[in-house]
Design goal:
The complex is a heterodimer.
Chain A (H helix, E strand, L loop, with lengths): L2 H7 L18 E4 L2 H6 L5 H7 L9 E3 L14 E2 L18
Antiparallel strand pairs in A: 1-2, 1-3
Chain B lengths: L5 E2 L20 H4 L3 E6 L3 H13 L3 E7 L6 H5 L12 H8 L4 E5 L9 H7 L2 E4 L5 E2 L12 E3 H8 L17 E5 L3 H11 L2 H4 L6 H8 L5 E5 L11 H8 L4 E5 L8 H9 L1 H12 L11 E6 L2 E8 L6 E12 L5 E12 L2 E4 L3 E2 L17 E2 L2 E3 L7 E7 L2 H4 L7 H18 L12 H10 L7 H17 L10 H8 L6
Parallel strand pairs in B: 2-3, 2-5, 3-4, 5-19, 7-15, 8-9, 8-15, 9-11, 10-11
Antiparallel strand pairs in B: 6-16, 12-13, 13-14, 17-18, 18-19
The chains are: A alpha+beta, B alpha/beta.
């Protein structure tokens, strides 16, 4: 089972626009512990092509649909990329018309 | 296998809105009535906004307007026929449309059938997500010669967009095509010209296009960029695919692969550009097989100066280019060298960027080609911070015509957050009731304007798939508007 499938089975909001066919980057996850990241099989060229476009890419980013569960990964934590906003530094709130 | 813990999305940094917390506005008690939303445009931008609004507010009622009979915007009419996996997102969008709080109104055009002012009177929230249906012009002589098209026009043509089917394109008398631009759309059009028609015939490509491609005499395509391979705008997946295209020899001038220190700096700071540049360098290894009867040549550091007319003065016969170079540093400037050359061709496809179109009563930044906005809230003009109550933009109309389908998910999140903040501050409506769908239906019925529901689209969809199955295609797109409307508007079972 991939992490994308696991997320959906547990009602976790992980987008999977292309349903695991390596045609998008919406299931991008960040492996929190580098130890687990190193246990994963290296990404293929095709996965790397999609990671190129992922929002908030990090050194331990992977596509959730390509990370397959196995016993050694027990305890692995995955984070979803932050959707950041660039607020005005002074906290200015625009007046509606 | 234990359930893996997933960290929640990192909190938005630097946020200063008072009382902000994750689960502010969920119950209709807070608002006292349905939240009526109208989304204009049913492409990824529109659908991601609709999806997130429905998730965020259980009392939202979202109407999605689409001027064409069929939904899904560029997923249907932009993504190339030989990229079916990229279209799978339609499944998700369909699930959103099938939500009982969501209604699809196909064949309804903002401006012609309903005005922006009318929408703002009938809905608490209006989100404009109608994309970019026009093109940047080169602004050079010869641009209107026959045989010169924007890439968008060519894409609409092969993707069966109703507005694209009558493109006066002639592939029978042309051996060489020039594509101006080196982004993913440029690669798409080059690839469709060079891919064997027999491979294309099992895709959802429009029938008139594959027919024309079968008799095409085009054997050589140039893809021309003003700058070098380090700056090329295409991405690795698309480049990798075209470099490996069966039966096509790849031609790149080795001298163009030389890098300066500035280039190396740029490559180091961008993973995307580094991987693209590496592919260009390796490209010689992609062309080892024999029996290649077509050629794809990447031309770098050439800017188009004019498009040249044939003796008849009507058709294009070539492109006049100036050699360029990058000068200075941080940022570098592109300059002409005063040296010129020509490429002979019978077809020119300009792939230099899309542009959005303004509608009446909508503030518009004509220079950037977008609606001025503050995190999706429409600004009253680009010179002020005042915003228009209840009016938002999403997608290319908000950000400009860049990014991929998934970019719209992040964009939609930003817009929906703005809407949520405004709803919480009762900014959007001052708690006034509005008619919503009922108001829109009455406006349309007064004009005798019939619209296609999502069920109507599903009928059209079934018909396309049935017609396609007979030919071994996933679907045969119904390109004529009248035929599409006849099927989509047919009387539904009560």
């Amino acid at each position: 089972m991939s992490m994308l499938e696991a997320a959906h089975e547990n009602d976790i909001e992980l987008e999977g626009a292309c349903e695991g066919s390596l045609a998008c980057s919406t299931c991008h996850v960040i492996v929190k512990d580098e130890k687990f990241y190193r246990m994963l099989k290296e990404p293929s060229d095709e996965e790397n092509d999609m990671l190129d476009l992922a929002f908030g890419l990090t050194e331990t980013s992977r596509l959730g649909c390509q990370v397959i569960a196995k016993p050694e990964l027990n305890g692995m934590e995955l984070a979803l990329p932050a959707a950041t906003r660039n607020f005005a530094v002074d906290g200015h709130v625009p007046k509606p018309h | 296998m234990k359930v893996l813990a997933m960290a929640r999305r990192a909190s938005r940094l630097g946020l200063r809105f008072p009382g902000r917390s994750r689960d502010l506005c969920t119950g209709s008690d807070d608002f006292g009535m349905p939240l009526h939303v109208c989304v204009v445009g049913s492409g990824p931008a529109g659908f991601y906004v609709a999806k997130k609004l429905l998730k965020r507010f259980d009392f939202a009622r979202v109407d999605i307007l689409e001027r064409l009979p069929a939904p899904f915007g560029l997923v249907r009419s932009g993504v190339a026929p030989d990229h079916p996996e990229t279209k799978v997102v339609i499944n998700q969008f369909s699930r959103t449309a099938e939500d009982e709080r969501c209604r699809f109104f196909g064949n309804v055009c903002l401006g012609t059938d309903v005005s922006l002012e009318e929408l703002r009177k009938n809905y608490h929230v209006v989100v404009l997500a109608y994309g970019a249906e026009s093109d940047h012009r080169l602004g050079i002589p010869g641009e209107d010669l026959e045989g010169v098209f924007s890439a968008r026009q060519f894409v609409w043509w092969y993707n069966g967009h109703p507005d694209g089917k009558d493109l006066p394109i002639n592939l029978n008398d042309v051996e060489t095509a020039v594509v101006l631009g080196q982004g993913n759309v440029a690669l798409d059009v080059a690839r469709i010209l060079l891919r064997s028609p027999s491979e294309l015939s099992s895709t959802d490509i429009a029938e008139h296009a594959v027919k024309a491609l079968r008799t095409s005499r085009i054997r050589k395509v140039y893809v021309v960029g003003r700058r070098g391979p380090v700056q090329a705008a295409c991405t690795a997946k698309e480049l990798r695919e075209i470099l490996g295209l069966k039966g096509v020899e790849i031609v790149i001038n080795e001298a163009d692969l030389q890098t300066t220190d500035c280039d190396l700096e740029e490559l180091q700071s961008s993973r995307i550009h580094k991987r693209v540049f590496d592919l260009f360098c390796k490209s010689a290894t992609f062309t080892k097989c024999a029996g290649r009867d077509k050629q794809l040549q990447f031309v770098f550091f050439r800017a188009p100066v004019s498009l040249l007319a044939a003796e008849d003065g009507i058709h294009v016969r070539g492109v006049h280019l100036q050699k360029t170079r990058l000068e200075g540093s941080h940022p570098r400037k592109l300059v002409g060298t005063g040296e010129f050359e020509e490429l002979d061709c019978g077809l020119v496809l300009k792939s230099i960027g899309y542009k959005s179109l303004p509608v009446p009563d909508l503030p518009f930044d004509h220079k950037k080609g977008v609606v001025p906005n503050y995190f999706g809230r429409v600004r009253s003009s680009d010179a002020t911070n005042e915003t228009e109550r209840g009016l938002y933009v999403a997608g290319w109309l908000k950000r400009g015509p860049t990014g991929i389908i998934g970019t719209n998910e992040v964009c939609a999140q930003e817009v929906v957050t703005s809407i949520e903040e405004d709803v919480n501050r009762a900014v959007v409506s001052n708690l006034k009731e509005v008619p919503g769908s009922v108001g829109l239906e009455s406006i349309l019925s007064e004009k005798n304007k019939r619209y296609i529901t999502f069920e109507g689209w599903e009928r059209l969809n079934e018909t396309e798939m049935e017609k396609g199955a007979v030919k071994g295609k996933p679907r045969e797109k119904i390109v004529g508007i009248d035929e599409a409307l006849a099927i989509g508007l047919a009387k539904e079972k009560e």
